[in-house]
Design goal:
Pfam families: TraV (PF09676). This is Putative Type IV conjugative transfer system protein TraV. By secondary structure, the chain is an alpha+beta fold. It contains two helices and six strands. The protein has one domain. The strands form three sheets. A two-stranded antiparallel ribbon has the order 1-6. It is elongated and about 85 Å long. The termini are far apart.
Length: 120
């Protein structure tokens, strides 16, 4: 019984050593940003978790590839893109990783039918 109890206590102590007890690694959220785990960012990018189009903060499309066409011609409306900033950090091995950016498509492009003009 003593062996079983000491094994249980030892395993509890080992598991508590794996928990996060240092707030040094918490995200400081500089410049009013927000901190999210990568799986949360992935869910936001892919539209999971109840995210609506309004909450994605996609800028209005000012895509230069959308051209004025002739009346009645279809037009291509470009994608909405979200930029994700990854803050600089130092990993557990002491290597420094510079800030980087990842661009992700959050709104797919689609076709628009240019209405024909009425004849006068």
């Amino acid at each position: 019984m003593k062996i079983l109890m000491s094994g249980f206590i030892l395993s509890c102590l080992m598991f508590t050593g794996c928990t996060k007890v240092n707030s040094e690694f918490d995200c400081p959220a500089p410049n009013g940003g927000s901190c999210k785990r990568m799986d949360q960012v992935y869910d936001l990018i892919n539209g999971e978790g109840g995210v609506t189009q309004e909450s994605l903060a996609v800028a209005p499309n000012r895509n230069p590839l959308v051209m004025e066409g002739r009346p009645g011609d279809p037009l291509r409306y470009g994608e909405g893109v979200m930029r994700v900033w990854i803050a600089p950090y130092e990993d557990t091995e002491g290597s420094y990783h510079q800030a980087s950016q990842v661009y992700s498509v959050v709104q797919k492009g689609h076709w628009i039918q240019n209405p024909p003009r009425a004849f006068k």
